[in-house]
Write a structure and sequence with these properties.
This protein is mostly beta strands and about 375 residues long. The protein folds into 2 domains: about 30 residues; about 325 residues, Neuraminidase. It is built from 2 helices and 25 strands. A hairpin with a 6-residue loop joins strand 7 and strand 8. The structure holds 2-acetamido-2-deoxy-beta-D-glucopyranose (NAG) (5 copies). One 2-acetamido-2-deoxy-beta-D-glucopyranose binds next to loops.
Length: about 375
């Protein structure tokens, strides 16, 4: 027979543990930052023609940006049937022309295309441009590989990559036409139930990972992350950057010749980290973050109390980081900033389900 006081001690300890977790969750979801004061790096305007998100953006050195638009996940404010998966381009040398929608080659299943992270790889010999996009299909995730035909502005579908280890893809970084790093944000993605996904999220379980796909098969290269998100690398290809969403950090890994990783640094950023873009000339990082992730559809979206937006620039990420906040908005101009891409004094800021902003950067 357990004495009564022992039972009370156990109950008090359990209650203390639960209380501690709830307090941690409240801070992790950003509810203590409910008030955001707006600032921007120069004039910003909405780019017409984007209503259902610009979740990811990648810009080529010539100033041509590729944008994935029309991601849909349960809990999003728009209905599934209203949203159409599209890939757009934006030319930084001709910003007045706005976005152009790329057409797909005939055989591609555009109806079920649900694009999330995208990455672009240019063949150094032929100049051929490959566009790799994560697509959430019904109960499975896959990576669609296209080549971009400049003349016809068409994406020619090349192949669909599926692998046991690609199940909750968030972002990817192409190293070739069919090799890439990819983040799985949770362990219960397309193959799991909504309840399992929610439990994993609310318990902040470190079951996310980074995998490397070598053209035939994926293997895990980093594990134990809580909702890993954006992935990118330094221009010299020596370091890999991964946004660790719920732990609000930028993880920096050293890359080995066999594409394995070793973590060398973890920078606290104090907001939920989404996609990471790297300026090919300077190596500076441009990051889209969610200051109050608890107000986004990942947790709970309320149009009358919208999530805000935030963009950071990091110089010298590996040796003595210098972090500047370029943009913050309380949700009136932009909700749920997922990505920021910089080219020659201008910034495109994309969002998970909202609009696309084009800002001039005059404060740097
Ligand atoms: C971008 O715009 C510039 C200036 O109008 C033009 O010269 C260039 O060809 C455009 N690039 C693409 C890929 O359309
Ligand atoms: C897009 O591609 C389809 C099939 O290849 C073709 O039928 C259609 O005309 C194209 N649309 C545009 C706007 O080029
Ligand atoms: C790809 O990775 C798998 C599993 O790690 C390995 O068996 C295979 O040899 C690799 N293929 C290439 C082309 O490197
Ligand atoms: C990759 O290379 C590193 C360093 O040389 C080594 O420690 C590691 O075991 C290798 N990993 C694989 C999967 O071959
Ligand atoms: C957000 O900022 C705008 C512009 O300053 C202001 O008009 C609006 O009331 C603010 N909204 C909230 C919810 O704070």
């Amino acid at each position: 027979m357990v004495p009564v006081y022992m039972r009370w001690i156990v109950i008090v300890f359990l209650a203390w543990g639960v209380l501690q977790h709830l307090i941690k969750l409240w801070f992790t979801l950003g509810y203590h930052k409910a008030v955001l004061y707006n600032h921007q790096p120069g004039p910003c305007r909405v780019v017409p023609g984007v209503e259902h998100g610009a979740e990811d953006i990648t810009t080529l050195p010539n100033g041509l940006a590729f944008i994935s638009s029309g991601l849909w996940l349960p809990g999003f404010p728009h209905g599934r049937s209203e949203v159409r998966g599209r890939i757009l381009t934006f030319n930084y040398s001709d910003p007045e022309s706005g976005v152009k929608e790329l057409n797909f080659s005939e055989e591609f299943d555009r109806e079920n295309f649900n694009p999330h992270g995208l990455s672009v790889w240019t063949d150094p010999l032929s100049g051929r441009i490959s566009v790799l996009v994560i697509s959430h299909q019904r109960r499975k995730d896959q990576v669609e590989v296209f080549t971009y035909d400049v003349a016809t502005e068409t994406l020619e579908h090349q192949e669909t990559i599926r692998d046991e280890l690609i199940y909750s893809g968030n972002d990817l970084l192409a190293l070739g036409p069919d090799s890439f790093y990819l983040t799985n944000d949770v362990s219960h993605g397309a193959r799991g139930s909504t309840l399992a996904r929610k439990l994993e999220t609310y318990l902040l379980l470190p079951f996310g990972n980074v995998v490397f796909y070598n053209g035939t098969q994926a293997r895990p290269v980093a594990e134990g992350l809580v909702f890993p998100n954006g992935v990118n690398m330094s221009p010299d290809r020596r370091y890999l950057y991964v946004g660790a969403g719920f732990t609000e950090e930028l993880r920096i890994f050293r890359r080995f010749a066999n594409n394995s990783l070793e973590q060398i640094e973890s920078l606290p950023l104090h907001s939920f980290v989404d996609n990471i873009e790297v300026d090919p000339q300077t190596g500076d990082l441009y990051i889209g973050l969610h200051p109050v992730i608890g107000k986004t559809p990942l947790i709970h979206y309320d149009p009358w109390d919208p999530p805000g937006a935030q963009v950071l620039r990091i110089k010298n990420a590996v040796r003595g980081p210098d972090i500047t906040e370029l943009f913050v908005n309380n949700g009136t101009k932009l909700q749920g900033s997922s990505v920021a891409s910089f080219h020659k004094g201008a910034l495109l800021i994309g969002s998970v389900f909202d609009r696309l902003l084009y800002c001039q950067v005059r404060t740097l």
